[in-house]
Amino acid sequence: MTAGDGPAARPVLPEEATALHGPAASAVDSARNRAAAEVRRLADLLVGRPLADADLARAAVDLAGVADRLTAAAGPGRRHRVMPDHRGHPQDFFDTSPVIGYANPLAPPVAIWAVRGETGQPELRGRARFGYAYEGPPTCVHGGVIAETFDELLGACNIPTGRAGMTGTLTIRYRRPTPLLADLDLVARQTHVEGRKIFAWAGIYHDGELTAEADGVFIELAPQRFLDVVSANAESAGGEVVDPELRDLVNRGARIMGVDGPPAT
């Protein structure tokens, strides 16, 4: 599954991974992605490897210096966030996602791509390998990490269908422990829609055996309602979480979370 060793290695995907959309733009070997991969590698070392206190103390000084330099170099506000495009590669929906984002050091990252399902509707496939930073019970992926992964997969699988929304309920069945440091296969598909409610299913497999599955119910939001949610959250955070172009995107009738709607006012 991986080229090289360790959690920072980039997944090697099968040919069908680029069959519908070509390669993912967010998975390029960019400076931001390389930096995120190195932080990811450090997290794996700190959590999973025996290290002497003296080595850790020296590393802490070095890391503080890196953080200070980047803090001084950072511009005002927050980095621009692009809204997901239902026509694009699923890996590009959320490039800073804590699950699939190559630019997010918290992400494994999970690699995903779209295929044409048996019904003709697009479905998601994926591959993942969770390192020591994601361990729950010894040798097992943490159940909360599995839940987070399912939430992302289910939400993302709705976007290519043109009917997407925000999570309403997430029901998970843990069939057997999901192993750490193992190649995992993922599947996610939208099952049906009832009004504003969107239903989806996802599963995680190891060596062909289902280790966990989830059902999700998502609520479709009109762009103005979505903007209201974002604005309220931004106010509580002192304005730090808002993309300055978000309101303009909505007012121009942009597709938000894959949902069309009337322009915001």
Describe this structure in words.
This protein has 265 residues and is an alpha+beta fold. The protein has a single domain (1-220), classed as Roll (Thiol Ester Dehydrase, Chain A), CATH 3.10.129.10. It is 28% helix and 22% strand. The protein has 5 helices and 8 strands. It has helices at 31-48, 53-73, 143-158, 223-236, 246-251, and strands at 2-3, 10-11, 111-116, 122-128, 166-174, 184-194, 197-206, 209-219. The strands form 2 sheets. A 6-stranded antiparallel β-sheet has the order 3-4-6-7-8-5, with helices on one face. A two-stranded antiparallel sheet has the order 1-2. A hairpin with a 5-residue loop joins strand 3 (111-116) and strand 4. The chain is globular, with a radius of gyration of 19 Å. The model is unreliable at 1-8 and 251-265 (pLDDT under 50).
Gist?
It is built from five helices and eight strands, in the order ββααββαββββαα.
SSE blueprint and pairings:
Elements (H helix, E strand, L loop, with lengths): L1 E2 L6 E2 L19 H18 L4 H21 L37 E6 L5 E7 L14 H16 L7 E9 L9 E11 L2 E10 L2 E11 L3 H14 L9 H6 L14
Antiparallel strand pairs: 1-2, 3-4, 4-6, 5-8, 6-7, 7-8
As a percent range, the share of strand residues is 15-25%
- Please bin the fraction of helical residues: 25-40%
**Count of DSSP H/I helices:** 5
Beta-strand segment tally: 8
Adjacency order of strands in the biggest sheet: 3-4-6-7-8-5
CATH superfamily: Hotdog Thioesterase
Q: Please give the domain count.
A: 1
Q: Oligomer, anyone?
A: single chain
Low-confidence stretches: 1-8, 251-265
Structural class by SSE content: alpha+beta
Element string (H = helix, E = strand): EEHHEEHEEEEHH
Task: Return Rg in Å.
Answer: 19 Å
Please tell me what the overall shape is.
globular
